[in-house]
Amino acid sequence: MNSHIHYTAKFQKSSKLPHNFENIFEPLFYHDKADKKKRAYIHFFSKNKIFTYIDKKTNEEKKASTSNSSLSKLKETLTDLKDVVDVYATVNQFTFTRKLENLIYTTMFYSDLDIYHTGFKDISKEDFIEKVLNYCFENKIPEPNLMIYSGNGFYLKWLFSEKCNKYEFTLDKYKIAQKAINQLFQFLGADSKALDASRVLRLPGSINSKTGKKCEVIYFNDERKSAQDLFEAFSHF
């Protein structure tokens, strides 16, 4: 079967986003509300210091470059961040600080593609989707569940069917899979420094100040695999 034909048809079937989907709510695909102990937080970063807080010592309102949200309040938090310039969010879940020792759940593998450093810097979004899907098909690796245009480059995200704590899926395994994915997508500009579980990626629905363009979801496929199945698919590369 011609892979171009295969993926043109499959793209039409599997890339449909939910009705009335808004880019700013993309994190709700993988940051679900399941958190019995209510310890999991999503962390946000913006060098523009857009987040406000009350200084406990002075009782004055101040600005910060970081903030966090509990899972129960995430949708409300995201609503306030729509069309904000240069805001980033964690792909995984932590306690109050975004440090690896405070990691609670991993939710995905990802690749940050600086495609503007490659010969594909002028590729259209449609051609990018087709190239990634064909490449995955030819190399017998799982397709990403999400492809995101960052306003300059692209992100690929492989969502876990269930989020995993550090005992269910170790950080060592996470690192192995991330390195393998990075090697596989070097031809599209995979950033070798963007591999860690504590990474923040640009938030869909926000604006990239470098280009003035919106970060947006361009492809969605909800056929998810477990972290272990994804690990086995990538780790032998």
UniProtKB/TrEMBL annotation:
<protein>
    <recommendedName>
        <fullName>RepB-like DNA primase domain-containing protein</fullName>
    </recommendedName>
</protein>
